[in-house]
Structure prediction request, 486 residues.
Amino acid sequence: MSLDERALLASVPTGLFIGGEWRLASDNATLSVVDPATGNELLAVADATPADGLAALDAAAAAASDWAATAPRVRGEILRRTFDLLQERADDFALLMSLEMGKPLAEARGEVTYGGEFLRWFSEEAVRISGSFGSNPEGTGTIVVSKRPVGPSFLITPWNFPLAMATRKIAPALAAGCTVVVKPAELTPLTTLLFVTLLQQAGLPAGVVNVITTSSAREVSAPIISDPRLRKLSFTGSTPVGRTLLTQASENILRTSMELGGNAPFVVFEDADLARAIDGAMLAKFRNIGQACTAANRFIVHESIANEFATRITERVAALTVGRGTDGVDIGPLIDDRAVANLTELVADAVAGGATVLTGGVAIDGPGTFFAPTVISGLAADARMLREEIFGPVLGIVTFSTEEEGVALANSTEYGLVGYVFTQDLARAHRMIDLIDTGMMGINTGIVSNAAAPFGGVKQSGVGREGGAEGISEYLETKYSLIPAS
Ligand code: ADP
Prediction:
């Protein structure tokens, strides 16, 4: 580990952040955070107990009414100051994410920009919360519709985008006037812990944001979710966990936002600009080491161009460099052994079904959890890779002949987060927006995320939207009042 890395890690708080103070877990336990590129421990952080989780909710509940009454401009300015502070520390945050999650440093730098934009966007949205006002149809009174913060919110984030998934939830919640308990993923909690120091520096009052890190996600989360003081649950992670959380949330009839799994189709039509489709494919598949819910999961390529697509993409993929994210590589390690085992199984299943590995296809010997960037063509219709989230640098190709067939393939999944379509025919692009059943579409582009746009899915990819004008409404309740004319 370099001196810079050591110095940065020494600046990361390792406690639970509750009521504006750092504290140890109630039983003094810690959990180890490791560098997936080496398997070595980076830091040990507090491992919260269920009692610690409830203490965090106590703090959020105690701070709720003051924060809701804090002027929107003041709330917005705290977010804006946090945005500025994040820019100053951009290199530190990029390095920290690369260390704990494994992503290439350049991509981590990109995440600082993307994650920061949620702070800036919602600092601007805080002062634009508005309702409506109008006469009732009978002319006997006024209908007033106003917005109020939903209340204490529990935010559970995943490991793949340690900063952006946190700011995407924290910023709209704070802008709306909600206090929060944040539970970052146990694999990558360090970024959230460091981020909280920026909120503190920006002047955030005690108790508005509380952070608990724990290796017992279920045991610590369940009592918070069933506590009547909690009003909202926002989760980003896998569909099975989301389903469990929705069941738990039903007990308290919580407002919920669920950003769950994806199985994105990447459809390349015969009239596509192929160079552009290849660039888009590299981005949609290999960004974040393929570990994104928006990652293209199924490459559905018109049969007339499939060979050329496969040849050209294989050349690009074979040239990707693999190594520790800090070493200027294209592809870092997978998050853990389980991820490597999963990819190994998916590739074996594809090959058993008759598919051909054009490059890669194997795990790379340790230390670290690396998998060779892979291209596979000729997937059978029942290949597991077409049904399951791959979550790694493995690109599988299937072909189609008619537009109807391409659309049917794209929609043959229970997921519906994002779809990518490459065509130069404008009418066809519009048709695809109508026909492909997803919450988001990339038209001739391999990346769609933007803080100013509503991110989210349909079907089993979730409910609710993050970012855009919609993002803040997830943390607002609508209140209607009738005021009689006389
Ligand atoms: P992944 O499979 O990508 O790791 P998960 O859905 O397992 O995604 O995890 C996403 C987040 O959900 C993490 O913060 C994890 O700790 C948390 N989590 C997992 N299981 C539960 C649970 N039963 N209750 C609450 N949080 C959970």
